[in-house]
């Protein structure tokens, strides 16, 4: 499939998902040659899962299908510019390229505003809306020391 056909598929999924009770978001993960590996739609309300955005759903499906946590060599087509969580997931999945249809402003215009998270990321933790504090730092570090010392770990 061409890039346009793959994006059209993501858009089609985003439209179908409205009829299925989900948000208007769809994503496709494909090889560079244009073969679809997996798709995802937004299932936040239907799955009672606040992390079930289209991109995360597609990444989970692709990784499970391919049996790897590393999706380098693959590309993602998403019907909308990703939120910070999904953008992070796309980086963690090591996808090679992202294509998006709608942008953040389009999403904001219909009530899906994630700009506050992007704004929060610019602030120091103590200035964010989410109260946070360091607790039991030394005890938590014992897990990191155990990881650092482990010789047969799978690096990722
Ligand atoms: Zn997202």
TrEMBL record:
SUPFAM superfamilies: Cytidine deaminase-like
KW Magnesium (keyword) present: no
Database matches in InterPro entries: APOBEC/CMP_deaminase_Zn-bd, CMP_dCMP_dom, Cytidine_deaminase-like
CDD domains with a match to the protein in the record: nucleoside_deaminase
Record keywords: Hydrolase, Metal-binding, Zinc
Pfam families (alphabetical): dCMP_cyt_deam_1
All copies of domain CMP/dCMP-type deaminase, residue ranges: 1-115
A GO MF term: guanosine deaminase activity
GO biological process, any: purine nucleoside catabolic process
Stated family: Belongs to the cytidine and deoxycytidylate deaminase family.
Name of the protein this chain belongs to: Nucleoside deaminase
Annotated source species: Bacteroides faecium
């Amino acid at each position: 499939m061409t890039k346009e056909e793959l994006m059209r598929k993501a858009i089609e999924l985003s439209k179908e998902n409205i009829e299925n009770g989900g948000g208007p978001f769809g994503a496709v993960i494909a090889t560079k040659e244009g073969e679809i590996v997996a798709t995802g739609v937004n299932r936040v309300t239907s799955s009672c899962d606040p992390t079930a955005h289209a991109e995360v759903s597609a990444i989970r499906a692709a990784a499970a299908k391919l049996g790897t946590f590393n999706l380098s060599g693959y590309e993602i087509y998403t019907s909308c510019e990703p939120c910070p969580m999904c953008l992070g997931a796309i980086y963690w999945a090591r996808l090679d390229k992202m294509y998006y249809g709608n942008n953040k402003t389009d999403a904001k215009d219909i009530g899906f505003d994630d700009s506050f998270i992007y704004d929060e990321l610019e602030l120091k933790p103590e200035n964010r809306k989410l109260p946070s504090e360091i607790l039991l730092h030394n005890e938590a570090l014992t897990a990191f020391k155990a990881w650092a010392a482990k010789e047969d770990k799978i690096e990722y």
